[in-house]
Predict the 3D structure of the following.
Amino acid sequence: MKDIFVPRRMWRPRGELKRRYDVVVVGGGSHGLATAYYLAQRHGVKDVCILEKSYIGSGASGRNTTIIRANYRTPEGAEFYGQSVRLYEKLSQKLGFNLMFSQRGHLTLAHSDRALVTMQERAEVNKLLGVNSSVIGPAEIEALCPQLDVSERPTWPIMGALYHPPGGIIRHDAVVWAFARAADELGVDIHPYTEVTGFERANGRVTAVETNRGRVECGQVVSATAGWSTLIAGMAGLRLPITTHILQAFVTEPLKPFLDVVIVSSQLHVYVSQTDRGEFLIGAEIEPYTTYCGTGTLSFLEISARHSIELFPQLERAKVLRTWTGLCDLSPDYSPILGRTEVDNFHVSSGWGTYGFKAAPIVGVTLAELVATGKTPDLIAPFALERFHTDTLVSELAAAAVSH
């Protein structure tokens, strides 16, 4: 008799909600899953559940554009994302899952003197913090990406670029699956299709979480819900200084590989990379209006396609395969809101704009440490919600010329 092959499930089927959990994580994306995983793996806190209103990875984690980098403008941001890149470099081995992380290099093009000065400033901040980043000229750009025209013929000539060798792309859904599987193996309960509908509070703390499947008492709560951050926080009686915008992207049909670096143009507001399947992934800036509408727009396709072709005329006849839209929660200083809130046991990971997926591992490590020990790690202290009351902002706008 032949052996019957039974495929292994990524994680256990959804069970019944327990009456109480030590930690309730709202949001089944990369941040929520990473926090739950590191709580169990590093601190032995395993009485944890993850509540996700849809399927696991259905939000920003499944709708981002896969770019990983650390060349940010502020010392706080560069150090924080630098730590995240270092964790990503070893994450496949740690989780036992091929995340297809390709550190192919990241080029942010400068088309003007002012843009070049900004790149120099960012490079110097990066170097002081040990982040591998430098400004290179047209000749070096051509050597790295011969498909770009670095002459003076284009409408927007390329004068230089910020080169970040550790930058690259990763398979976003693999990151979600790997964290979910690893957390599940450590005993974390994962509950998809479980929507949070409210919180019960007493004495300045959240005492229970209300869901469409019943009530769950809790010791601590972590909200990691990206575009829905303000709504979840509002249920807990907390107001966040966040606006929600949509970010759009599209991919072309698969083409023979010819682009092995990530290209960003801060003035054309477009970024381009080629996936492992040969598709060209193209994105642009967030839409300027606030909305929760997930419908894509023709104007985005027209503008981003035109600017992509200005950089790569080779794509002129490439067919668009699919488009998508994600929600971005944007803070006033373009930096995240991370850690404690005025509700004693309610912690947040929010305000990421378009940077969130890059930070997933380090968010998990630091939030897990905060929840388990009650002490805010130094690395995330600058991103506390109270900075908007003490006027100690961490302005990352200079590194946000294009939302990626």
